Amino acid sequence: MILVLRALGVGDLATGVPALRGLHAAYPGEELALVAPRWLAPLVDLVGGVDRLVEADGLGHLGWSGPPPALAVNLHGRGPQSHRMLASVRPRRLLAYRNLEAGHLDGPPWRADEHEVDRWCRLLAWYGIPADRTDLALRRPAPGGLPTGVSIVHPGAKATQRRWPPQRFAAVARELAGRGHRVVVTGSPGERGVAAEVARRAGLPADAVLAGATDLGELAALVAHARLVLCGDTGIGHLATAYATPSVLLFGPVPPAHWGPPPDRPWHEALWVGPRPAGEGTAAHPALAELAVPAVLAAVDRVERAALRRPAVPRQAVPVVPAAR
Fold first, then answer.
1. DSSP secondary-structure letter at 162?
2. Strands, E, within 37-128: which ranges?
3. In this predicted model, what pLDDT tens digit does every residue of 50-93 receive, in sequence order?
4. DSSP 8-state code for residue 284
5. Rounded CA gap, 308 and 304, in Å?
6. Do domains 2-126 and 140-321 have the same CATH topology?
7. Which of 133, 134, 80, 85 is nearest to 107 (CA)?
8. Residues 93-129: pLDDT tens digits?
9. Structural domain boundaries of the chain?
C-alpha cells in the first residue's frame, strides 16, 4: 500500500498528476491511496492509477484504520505538520522533503522558487522514481447533456487579489460573443453573483450563467469539450491544460513560473505584467489591475491561432469516459 497526501484543491491535484502517475508506474502491484478532500473525488477518478480516496479536508488527524502502509509520500508541502500527519500512520518508509523540525532528515531540500509540477517530480527523482512533468492529461469525460464548443469565462478565484475586475471580464465576453463565440460564465455557488454580473454587463442570456450549476465532474467535462477558457490563476486553468483546451490565464500576484501552463504549449498563454507591490484592501492585485482588455483579446487570438496549428494528438491522448454525475 502506498499512501499519498495531497489534501488541497483542483489546481493542486492537477499539478500533482505527473508525480501520482510516476508512483503508480514505479509500484504497479501496490494499491495507491490518495489522501484528499471528498469533493475532489470526480477529478481523482479522471487521474487514473489512484485506487482509493482517503478523505481529509486539509491537515490534521488522519482517520486511518488500516495496517501501516509500506510507503507514505508527502505531496502536500514542506512540513512539519504534513510530515507528522503521515508519520502518525507508521509507514515503513516516508518520502518527503527534508524537514528538521519534523525529524525527517531524508529527502531533498525544499526550494521556494520552483514550479509546482517540478517540485513533486524532483522529490520523486531524488528517491529514484522517474516522473514525466509533461504527463498532465486527464481522462476526458463524455459531455453528457452539457454544451460543447463553448468559450468559458471564469471570473472567480479564492483570493480577492487574484480576481480580474468583473467589468473587464464582461468586456472580453461581450467581444467574444460578438465574434460568434457561445460564451458561458462558470464559478462556484458562492461566485454566482459575480458570474451573473459579468453576464449582465456582457449582454449574455441568463442561461449563460453556469456558476453553481455544475459539479466538479461536470465542470471538467465542460472544459474538456470547450473552445476556450478565460480565467485567473485558479483550478479551471489547470483543467484547460489537462484537456489541451486553448486558454488565457490572468496571473497576479503569483507569477506563472510557479503555477502556469507548460511554456512549450502555445495554445495556453499566461499573462503577467511582472512583480508589483501588493495593494491594500480587497481590490485586485496591481499585477492584475494593469492587464487591459485589448491585451487579453490579443492573447485569445494568439492561442486560437496556435490551436489550429498544433498536432491533433494532445486532445486525443486520453480516452473518453462517461461523464461524472
1. G
2. 52-55, 71-74, 94-95
3. 999 999 887 877 878 889 999 999 999 999 999 999 999 999 99
4. P
5. 7
6. yes
7. 80
8. 999 999 999 999 999 999 999 999 999 999 999 999 9
9. 2-126, 140-321
Answer for the pair 80, 257: CB distance below 8 angstroms, yes or no: no
What cell numbers appear for 22 in the block? Answer: 510516476
The CATH number given to 2-126 is 3.40.50.2000
The model's pTM is: 0.91
Q: Measured between alpha carbons, how far is 50 from 32 in angstroms, rounded to an integer?
A: 5
Q: Which residue has the cell 501588493?
A: 278
Sequence letter at residue 67: P
Distances (CA, A) of 272 to 14, 290, 302: 21, 9, 16
Q: H/E/C letters for each residue in 165-205?
A: CHHHHHHHHHHHHHCCCCEEECCCHHHHHHHHHHHHHHCCC
Q: What is the pLDDT of residues 302-317, one digit of tens each?
A: 999 999 998 765 443 4
Q: The domain 140-321 belongs to what CATH superfamily?
A: Glycogen Phosphorylase B; (3.40.50.2000)
